[in-house]
Amino acid sequence: MVLLLPTVTSFDTSLHHELSSSFASSFPSPLSSPSLCLPKHTEPPPSTLCDPDGLLASSSYPVVSAAIEALNNLPIQVCGTPPLDKTHLPDRVEAAVVLLDRMVHIPSSQYPSSSSEPDDVDRFYLRSAKILAEAIHDSYGVGHVDPPSCSSSPPSSISTGLLFLISKNDRTMHVSTSSGVDAILTPSRVTSIVNAAKPHFRKDDLQSGIVAALDKTAAYLVKGPPGFMEKYFVSGVIFRLARGAKREE
Q1: How far apart are the C-alpha atoms of 47 and 67, rounded to whole Å?
Q2: What is the mean pLDDT of each run of 10 residues along the chain (249 residues)?
Q3: Domains of the chain
């Protein structure tokens, strides 16, 4: 029997925010409920990894947790211009990784129909993952607020949080970033982070995909904000090449 889902004429953003917030409020936290987040591990290691559906092998827990810890220990600078004033401690990010089998909080009435265009289906899953990732990010409270390099400025609730959401059977990943890392992890860089994981996910290798994404993120944090060439010239060339290719179709 084939299940035909009803056609969705528009994406109900308000409903998705409401459903995601409700789901996130009851979703296990790796800090307060580690046994629920890592069910295959009898003594879960201290980590901000949450895999309540048990998608990772137990042997993957310490590997992924170590990659998260390495990312969280990287010294970065959020405010001011490098080099960092020696009187300040370095800033650091706080990252969490959340894995789901699928986004079960979305009712069937909200899904695209079987006759929907592939691009519309992709947009649906990407928007759904974004809203859910941000809701879990807010629920966890991941991120260091007002990092040391910003201490000379008035408190502004600048945060250095990151949350990586992977929904395996929805074939979707989203990286939620806080304000303190937005200048470094630009949209194009976040796309590169997701792309680093894709080849591994296609092989059903979640561990390698997550580690690849975390390592790519770490490389960007070490590099700092994109320079002129990356921000303007490279994106301009890609845009022009894309337009040129389209005209030749």
Answers
A1: 10
A2: 46 92 95 87 79 93 94 87 64 95 91 86 93 96 86 72 96 95 93 96 97 97 85 52 38
A3: 13-247 (3.10.310.50)
